[in-house]
Amino acid sequence: MWYNFFEMDDILGQALLDFQKGTYTEDIKTFSSLDEEDTMSLPYLFRNYSEMPKLEQKALHLCKGKILDIGCGAGSHSLYLQGKGHEVTSIDASKGAVGTCKLRGLTKMVHGDILTYSGTTFDTLLLLMNGIGIVGRLEKLTIYLDHFKKLLKPGGQILMDSSDIIYMYDKDEDGGHWIPKELNYYGEVQFTIAYNHKRSNPFDWLYIDYHTLQNIAGTNNFNCELVSQGEHYDYLARLTIKP
């Protein structure tokens, strides 16, 4: 989720609180460097298990032991896990998101940046709805993976989904894709969002194809397993530290 980028004005957090408190009147508008304008449905962020994509359902079934839901947003994944009796901690840098989770009944929340979070370890780190996007740029992925190692118990796992967005780029005459030269990696996208007459500052967000993830994970002493693939270039991966 994108909730790690709005501590100053917390646009998404305010939108979540509005929906939770019954004052929902509009969805969130998103604008990307791919020249796309889109809408993020607030009700969708509050979906129940049956409304989740199969990749998310699969990830929730694979969760084990003590769980850290990173970038928990409105808390829908954490709520399902808590309801199944799991010990789950939900972390988000958005104060509004954490407040929303409390109102929805979650019992263990942390308001903060995942890179500064420490002091306990987990059996499962969960990053859904392209939660690895918080990395922002591909070059920073190693920093996050190194920190995740410190948060994992022996035998622990990282469950994450993402998408290969190569399909969003035009094809050239040779059948390849035309990637702007200024891009370091085609999955690096810059977004702004707007809600209730407020607009965020631009922020970086990462979509990573599976093979690139696998290569970087291996370099950083992780095994990387492709658990399943979705219907639209998305996938679920499981990372474990190499013995």
What report would you give on this structure?
The structure is a single chain. The chain has 243 residues and is an alpha/beta fold. The chain has a single domain (3-241), classed as Rossmann fold (3-Layer(aba) Sandwich), CATH 3.40.50. 26% of the residues lie in helices and 29% in strands. The protein has seven helices and twelve strands. It has helices spanning 11-20, 42-45, 54-62, 76-83, 95-104, 141-151, 210-219; strands at residues 28-32, 37-40, 66-70, 87-92, 109-111, 122-127, 152-163, 188-195, 198-199, 203-206, 222-229, 234-241. The strands form two sheets. The protein has a seven-stranded mixed β-sheet, with helices on both faces. Strands 1, 2, 8, 9 and 10 form a five-stranded antiparallel β-sheet that branches. Strand 8 (188-195) and strand 9 form a beta hairpin. Helix 1 packs parallel to helix 5. The radius of gyration is 18 Å and the shape is globular. Mean pLDDT is 93; it is low at 1-8.
Q: Could you report the average pLDDT, rounded to the nearest whole number?
A: 93
* Topology as a string of helices (H) and strands (E): HEEHHEHEHEEHEEEEHEE
**Spatial extent as radius of gyration:** 18 Å
The class by helix and strand makeup works out as alpha/beta
**What is the terminal separation in angstroms?**
30 Å
Per CATH, the architecture is 3-Layer(aba) Sandwich
- Strand composition percent: 25-35%
- Order of strands, widest sheet: 5-4-3-6-7-12-11
Shape: globular
In terms of per-residue confidence, which ranges show pLDDT below 50 for 5 or more consecutive residues?
1-8
Task: Give the number of domains.
Answer: 1
Number of strands: 12
